[in-house]
Amino acid sequence: MAAPNKPTLTPAKTHKVKIIEVNQETHNVRSFRFSYPQGFEYKPGQFIMITLNVVQDGIPKLIKRSYSLSSAPTQEKHIETIVKLMGLGSKRLFEHMKGDELEITGPYGMFTFQENLSNEVHGRKLNHIVLLAAGSGITAPLSIVRYILDSRLALKVSLIFSNKTGHDIIARKELERLAAEHDNFSLYLTVTRPEEDPDWHGLSGRMDEKLIKAAVHDIADGLFYLCGPAEFVARKPILTIKDMSGLKIAIS
Ligand SMILES: Cc1cc2nc3c(=O)[nH]c(=O)nc-3n(C[C@H](O)[C@H](O)[C@H](O)COP(=O)(O)OP(=O)(O)OC[C@H]3O[C@@H](n4cnc5c(N)ncnc54)[C@H](O)[C@@H]3O)c2cc1C
After folding, report:
1. I need a surface site. Which of 9, 37, 179, 243 has the fewest CB within 10 A?
2. Whose CA is nearest to atom 42 of ligand 1?
3. Quick one: which of 23, 207, 204 has its CA closest to 132?
């Protein structure tokens, strides 16, 4: 039997998976759905490594890149990740299409949501999961949202999601639909460059204490997950908020 309060994580293994769907999420972001690897078990928030064959300086080689899973373990037909086009690895991945086979290893990572463990801080149950995400850092929080809602857990979940413009919001339609369908899910979208998006009529400005406190009234009952690029997760206005009970941070 697992020791209490120790995460029960499955060891990483190598799997061959087939790409079963590719979707253009924004101008530079795609989601990739893979066939469900046999015997693969993961927790929301974990990541996989994808092996990619690239040519660098004229020399063919294999590289590995880490990608968080955006699917939830409740989705039994596929696993999914969402990738932003950046350099060598992501460019190679973007060349792959439906039907292609890739090698992945995983799952990895301790940034996990586990309903019986993570919502307990200092022996106190926290029933409000607060996810703070920016840009492609949405991958792991999306897995957590999908999992909590799919599993009908008796938890409140709030997602505060910052992007440059409305056009950069990954999975926007699904998130808005889930917020409309589930009373226990609240979605707050903010954009940092509203001047570049005349169609945007929502919140604007960087994520800071004022925005977080306006969205989350019961700060002391929240378990916070912070996920995004390094410059986002290191921002003092978020890290120094008083009364935040638990804080898990992941850099994407
Ligand atoms: C745990 C974990 C989870 C992650 N999850 C995700 C995820 O869900 N989604 C996601 O999109 N990413 C994720 N990442 C990041 C991902 O692993 C890769 O680092 C990312 O895709 C960039 O890899 P790349 O090979 O495309 O870029 P690289 O070639 O490694 O380049 C990285 C950066 O350097 C820049 N660069 C490249 N070449 C040059 C050059 N010659 N001169 C100057 N700059 C250069 C690129 O523009 C880019 O900004 C995650 C990382 C970790 C550690």
Report:
1. 243
2. 87
3. 207
Residues 81 and 165 in one domain: no
Taking the C-alpha atoms of residue 104 and residue 98, their distance in angstroms, rounded to an integer, is: 16
The answer to the question of residue 114 being in a domain is no
| Residue range(s) defining the domain that contains residue 53 | 13-108
Which CATH number fits the domain that encloses residue 166? 3.40.50.80
The CATH number given to whatever domain includes residue 33 is 2.40.30.10
CA of residue 5 to ligand 1 center, whole Å? 33
Ligand 1: which residues within 6 Å by Cβ? 47, 65-68, 81-84, 86-90, 136, 139, 252
Segments of the chain scoring below 50 in pLDDT: 1-4
Radius of gyration of the chain (CA): 18
What's the structural domain count of the chain? Answer: 2
What is the predicted pLDDT for the residue at 84?
96
What DSSP letter does each residue of 104-166 carry, written as one string? EEEEE-S----TTTTTEETTEE--EEEEEEEGGGGHHHHHHHHHHHHTT-S-EEEEEEEESSG
The answer to whether 68 and 106 are in contact (CB under 8 A) is no
